[in-house]
């Protein structure tokens, strides 16, 4: 019977693989970003740094308006003298004081002692673990479970059709 499912339903099998693969990618992205922020909140060290450059982009929205996004690069130096750079991205307009950055802007950077390349601008970190859940995990989990549910629905549909079972009402 499984041979029948895979031979005659190869499109469904491909769809299952794609949906579950996308769900897994969202899940991995959400966990990786969230884990970094969780570690920074729990055991991050703070050093002085500087925003060295900024940019913003505008794209046409479907409704006729503009969708703004922005970014910045920052640099910081560890107490042992090593220098590191970081990049941040955000949605919306850039703050006015950063539009025409003529000199580096002083900031505080939180980094991990055992992996100093993992860093965030301290003011951009959530205040607590609930902030991490709200900012990082919840949006990723919504996408992840959407794709997982669609994937499992397709699996259920393939099995139901292969057994010629009546549809659920």
Percent range of helical residues: 40-55%
The number of distinct structural domains comes to 1
Number of strands: 5
Instruction: Report the structural category.
Output: alpha+beta
Taking strands numbered 1, 2, ... along the chain, how are they ordered across the largest sheet? Answer: 3-2-1-4-5
Terminal CA distance: 25 Å
Tell me, rounded to a whole number, the average pLDDT.
Answer: 79
Q: How would you characterize the largest beta sheet?
A: 5 strands, antiparallel
Model regions low in confidence, pLDDT < 50 over at least 5 residues: none
Top keywords for this entry?
169 residues; alpha+beta; five-stranded antiparallel beta sheet; 5 strands
Question: What does this 3D model show about the protein?
Answer:
With 169 residues, the chain is α+β, with helices and mostly antiparallel strands. The chain has one domain (2-163). It has four helices and five strands. A five-stranded antiparallel β-sheet has the order 3-2-1-4-5. Strand 4 (105-112) and strand 5 (115-121) form a beta hairpin. The longest helix is centred in the C-terminal third of the chain and has 35 residues, at 129-163. The model has no long low-confidence stretch (mean pLDDT 79).
List the helices and strands and how they pair.
Elements: H1 2-8, H2 10-43, E1 44-60, E2 66-77, E3 83-91, H3 96-99, E4 105-112, E5 115-121, H4 129-163
Antiparallel strand pairs: 1-2, 1-4, 2-3, 4-5
Helix pairs in contact: 1-2, 2-4
Short description:
With about 170 residues, this protein is an alpha+beta fold.
């Amino acid at each position: 019977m499984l041979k029948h499912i895979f031979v005659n339903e190869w499109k469904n099998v491909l769809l299952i693989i794609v949906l579950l693969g996308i769900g897994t990618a969202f899940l991995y992205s959400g966990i990786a970003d969230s884990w970094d922020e969780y570690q920074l909140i729990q055991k991050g060290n703070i050093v002085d740094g500087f925003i060295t450059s900024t940019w913003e982009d505008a794209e046409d929205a479907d409704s006729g308006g503009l969708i703004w996004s922005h970014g910045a690069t920052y640099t910081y130096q560890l107490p042992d003298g090593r220098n590191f750079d970081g990049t941040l991205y955000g949605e919306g307009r850039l703050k006015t004081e950063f539009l025409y950055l003529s000199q580096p802007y002083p900031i505080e950077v939180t980094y991990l002692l055992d992996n100093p390349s993992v860093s965030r601008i301290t003011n951009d970190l959530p205040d607590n673990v609930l902030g991490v859940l709200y900012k990082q995990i919840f949006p990723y989990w919504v996408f992840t479970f959407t794709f997982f549910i669609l994937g499992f629905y397709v699996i259920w549909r393939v099995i139901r059709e292969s057994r010629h079972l009546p549809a659920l009402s």
